[in-house]
Amino acid sequence: MRIRTLVAATGALALSLVSGCAQGGAAGSSANTVTYWLWDANQLPAYQACAKGFEKENPGLKVKITQLGWSDYWTKLTAGFIAGTQPDVFTDHIQNFGQYADLKVLEPLDDLGIKDSDYQPGLAANWVGKDGHRYGAPKDWDTVALFYNSRMTKDAGLTAEQLNSLSWNPKDGGTFEKAIARLTIDRNGKRGDEPGFDRNNVKVYGLATNGGGFGDGQTQWSNFAASAGWSYLDKPRWGTKYQYDSKTFQSVVQWYFGLAKKGYMPPLSDYNVQSNQANTQVAAGKAATAFDGAWMISTYAGFKGRDIKTALTPVGPTGKRATMMNGLADSVTKASKNKAGAKKWVAYLASDKCQKVVGGYGVVFPATKAGTEAAVAAYREKGIDVSSFTEPVADKKNFRTFSYPIASYSADMTALMSPAMEDIYGNGKPVSSLDQTNDQINLILSQ
């Protein structure tokens, strides 16, 4: 999901108040230029290479790429929709798709001929709105795995085979919690599974924290909830009711945040979305493991003095492992001054021609199968094993992959769920409090 704050959510809410007021075209666009925005600096070189290929095939058309940091990106995009200075094409996130589709600021892409079978399963279908029109062309995908410090796991007596065979349940945490406890060390050198362990004075946590998880818990609790059989909504896409009042979900949340109470995971007060994320905790040697997404593979691999490896998410009560499979897309703005050129560019971005180029940079997994294969090969050349991320996509028998919740008013959901989850994690509020939050979200969704 990449780094995230509530900026996107609050921005979308602001947009809902003034949508449709602005007229005019995208800043910098013209009949000869297509403006394109993305947020990931690591991917910029790959898309600059794609732009060169596109321009060669389309003489007279130029692509102007702008890269912005995550928070600035969504703030500026929202302001652009209001002021009429939005780009022709932008990298879209499923988190904001529902809101933008409802606000009618996206151009339908039905004429691009996007086929589900051309991409990894589910990616293309996620970008079809409630009205049946397509608003995004599949770009890339990611799953979640357990990154771990191999030196710390070895010192704890845990092998790679054991880490890939962990299971969990909400009653006692199973072998997963035992492993996390074993990896936790207090200031006196006592491990979390040893007598005398001081949970209030921890030197190394067994599991890093990525905060409360908003309403999706992508790199926090989502794999546990899904492997327990829970789903965000009553339908996979465009559901009408959220299910945060589920007893199954609430038992998962109570167990997961309970790891912090036991001293195995940092308290919420130790987490900062800008400066102390899970990867920072692992890099500093303050945590032995972390659930994180495929977009972070190169980051973890680059930690000096840390031999970081990955393991599959643990098996849950359903007998399956689970991971969110998120996917980005490229969308054309409704107010684009160069819709013909923009659609040509999006079609090129979604093709094997571009996606194989992007895969070759070994930064993300492109949406097409050929693009994914190119990425796997590129990672292999770097000496990085990415099977913990690709296996869930290939093995449907033993894995459940699921999408970020796709529904209207997603910004409102996030705005309500973020403080609710932080209250449970940081302030000890009972999980039953989610009943009221769920009612509030569903009331908005029913409008």
From TrEMBL:
<feature type="signal peptide">
    <location>
        <begin position="1"/>
        <end position="24"/>
    </location>
</feature>
<dbReference type="InterPro" id="IPR006059">
    <property type="entry name" value="SBP"/>
</dbReference>
<keyword id="KW-0813">Transport</keyword>
<dbReference type="InterPro" id="IPR050490">
    <property type="entry name" value="Bact_solute-bd_prot1"/>
</dbReference>
<keyword id="KW-0732">Signal</keyword>
<dbReference type="Pfam" id="PF01547">
    <property type="entry name" value="SBP_bac_1"/>
</dbReference>
<protein>
    <submittedName>
        <fullName>Sugar ABC transporter substrate-binding protein</fullName>
    </submittedName>
</protein>
<comment type="similarity">
    <text>Belongs to the bacterial solute-binding protein 1 family.</text>
</comment>
